[in-house]
Amino acid sequence: MSFKGTNEYVATSDLQMAVNSAITLQKPLLIKGEPGTGKTMLAEQLAKSLDARLIQWHIKSTTKAQQGLYEYDAVSRLRDSQLGVDKVHDISNYIVKGKLWEAFEAEERVILLIDEIDKADIEFPNDLLLEIDKMEFYVYETQERIVAKNRPIVLITSNNEKELPDAFLRRCFFHYIDFPDAETMQKIVEVHYPDIKKELLRDALDVFFDVRKVPGLKKKPSTSE
User: Fold this and answer.
1) Among residues 46, 49, 114, 141, which is most buried (max CB within 10 A)?
2) Are 189 and 196 in contact (CB under 8 A)?
3) Residue 149: exposure state from Cβ atoms within 10 A (0-12, 13-18, ≥19)
4) Residue 114 burial (CB < 10 Å; 0-12/13-18/19+)?
């Protein structure tokens, strides 16, 4: 089954080719583009198109790569040991699974979205190189190796706020979503507002693209606006 867009998402032929190529090659798909060009929605609609579960990992400036794998809650274990709680003897009770672990242990093929990876520090992508490439990681506290049961389809989005490491880029299939032209934008609006008057839409698009051409704007209006 190939991705051709959905009734709610207009995918250009270039984007369709990028998605299907990444799936075929079993490589993460790195999507860049202006805010509002449908990067996050692409993952949602791809999941809908393939009837697959979507696991979303939204990245913040404070997010660490290790959180995507797992975290060891040493504080809770210390507290429980002081209280004499029985489960303290099994360290696995204090391992908090991350989004990659959740995707790896899924019985079916899922879609993993790593959203806005450029918000994290520069070392974040490099810290995930091995796990995304080999689809496995090691849990040192329990001495077990977690291997993906079914290789997930990985989508990674970036607003291009900072450059990503070359070693990371080499492991991804890359696609830049250009801002929609007037014809594509018309199709997008009609998908969401099928009853809109043609004349109103044409006038609104003329104003919209004129505003985007105004020199000196710090932030250009996006598709949502």
Assistant:
1) 114
2) yes
3) middle
4) buried
Give every CB contact of residue 97 below 8 A, 6+ residues apart in sequence: 70, 105
The answer for residues whose C-beta is within 8 angstroms of residue 49's C-beta and 6 or more apart is 1, 3, 4, 5, 6
Total residue length of the chain = 225
Torsion 24-26-30-31 (CA) sign = positive
Q: Running DSSP on this structure, what letter comes out for residue 152?
A: P
Task: Return the bridge partners of 137, or none.
Answer: 146
Report whether 152 contacts 111 (CB < 8 A). Answer: yes
Residues 84 and 139: their CA atoms lie apart, in Å, by 25
Say if CB 188 and CB 180 are below 8 A apart.
Answer: yes
Helix axis angle for 13-25 and 39-50, nearest 10°, is: 60
pLDDT tens-digit profile of 114-136? 999 999 988 899 898 889 989 99
Task: Select from 11, 1, 7 the least CA-distant residue to 175.
Answer: 11
- Please list, in sequence order, all residues whose beta carbon lies within 8 angstroms of the beta carbon of residue 186, skipping any fewer than 6 positions away: 201, 202, 205
As a whole number of angstroms, the distance between CA 225 and CA 208 comes to 9
Encode pLDDT of 187-213 as tens digits: 878 877 888 888 888 888 888 878 888
